[in-house]
Design goal:
Distance between the termini: 77 Å
CATH topology of the largest domain: Rossmann fold
Strand order of the largest sheet: 10-9-8-11-12-13-18-22-21
Number of strands: 22
Number of helices: 22
Structural class: alpha/beta
Low-confidence stretches: none
Mean pLDDT: 80
Oligomer: single chain
Shape: elongated
CATH class of the largest domain: Alpha Beta
Helix content: 40-55%
Number of domains: 3
CATH superfamily of the largest domain: NAD(P)-binding Rossmann-like Domain
Length: 637
Amino acid sequence: MVKLIIDSFSERYISRWFIFAFDAFLVIFTLWFSGLIHNNFILDELNPGAFFLHLRFVFFIYIGTFLFFRTFSGIIRQTSLSDAFVAFKAITLGFVIILVLALISRRAETASVNWPSYSVLTLQYLLLLISLIGSRFVVKSAYSRITHIPLKKEIGVVIYGAGTAGVLTKNTLYEDKEYHYKVVAFIDDNPYLAYKTLEGIPIISYFVALRSSFIKRHNVKQLIISIPSLYPERKKEIIETCLEQGIQVKVVPALNLWIHGQLNTHQLERVKIEELLQREPILIDSKNVYREVKNKVVMITGAAGSIGSELARQVLTHSPKRLVLVDQAESAIYTLQYELRNATEQRDLSHRIEFLVANVKDRFRMTNIMDMYRPDIIFHAAAYKHVPLMEENPYEALMVNVFGTKIMSDLALKFEVEKFVMISTDKAVNPTNIMGASKRIAEIYIQSLANGRTRFVTTRFGNVLGSNGSVVPLFRKQIEHGGPVTITHKDITRYFMTIQEACSLVLEAGAMGKGDDIFVFDMGEPVKIYDLAVKMIQLYGFKPEVDIKIKETGLRSGEKLFEELLTNSENLLPTPHPKIMRARVSGLTYKEVSKFIDELTGLIIEEDEFLIVRKMKEIVPEFVSNNSVFQVLDKNV
């Protein structure tokens, strides 16, 4: 009932003309009270006639400045410092005009206006400032207290950052009607702010705020980082500490992302798991990439996918002559088209981008596209990547990953493309599944073409955080639906890299590749998927295995516990970039590879999956199936 009454009144706003009338009343009252003070609170000393004569001039001057600055148009319950400054300017301008007129009038011999004394005018100015501005903040404070009657359980919050953004965050939390927040402290690394207060709230150090005793005493449930530019290392340290203490962490978005310059609690973002797995920023030689791409026609296949779309965004920053984006997924390419055309209007690059719906398996269509646009560089990202699905559909895996790559690389030679960069995967190393083996065959084929004019480059890296089909979006959905979070095995590990990192390294590797190169990226340390699930649950403010269960489902078809970046017969050579290594790989000749490809073509026509996979194992001897129906083929090897 109480909440219903509060909500009904919270939807109503005081008329601006009522506020204007109240401000006018304050002008009258402060002039009368100033005269009373001037006469030592002796009412008999006040002359009503003189008062009304003085009021006639003072009143209309102040009213005029109020109208000019529109001091009455603000929403009182949301009064800010900017509103107070507007009122200050209006009252001060009125005071200056009154003083000037009073001075001129008194010096004129024919003065007809008996102005109040300067002390009365000055006293009225000060009283009017205090009462007009103060009344607004009193109303705001009263409204905040009334609407924050603890109808719901209080949520203790600590705000990291005692600057302007921190204060705005605090005010935003207090205006929220859905939850009852209580800011118990600000944290700031500036030692000069320690043990001071900000709007009555103490500023304390990071170490004090995150002590178990402090957290329990103040029932701290959330920490909000209000410094968007906080160093990643520091941010990661704070998040890790909060997770250990069971505190949910949220982040204030950058100022340019606020809606109409205003922040609300719905804009506070949960920390993303990418921020915990993030490593040192990867630096690339932008000049080298710029020289490679500038004024070139660049084609990207699989352009609407996670890697392809990010490659498109990054290529656009290097001034290509034309960017040709190819994908078979109509809806996805449309979404990318909308994004890039809107994002590039100011840079006048939208006319350089072509969006094409096409399938790399279609030789006739791709030949026409190549003939029309004559690309200088091709980034071949089109591929099927989902291990269990491809284990059940080896035909499609071969058609896209092998024959689609063959079509594109053959056309690159035919149309004398300068450079062909293929996006491969760590699953091509000692493959245990159809997908990985198909990518390895694609690697072998384009290596065999390296003696021509076109330079062929392969880039090999692990899982990409946030990409379509990765565990991160899957875990998010499962957590938001209350669990359980499913993992295939408690000991399974994977290499992870952000999309931006991977694409930056692809561009850098593409620029440095001279032909017949397989570049392997430094993926850092492998991550246990179980640990990933635990941290994601904690980031949502839940307790793993208590609020959200973690369930093992068993390894999927073709899946292995550990991924590798090199086969047993490969080793690494350094490159000018510390995060990129060149794999020394012994390849097959074009004649040998062509023979295998022809044999695969014949088997595909027969549609016998076991014969197809047997031939794949012959081409890639290290291909040993795992948790798959095709394991029976390995017994005969």
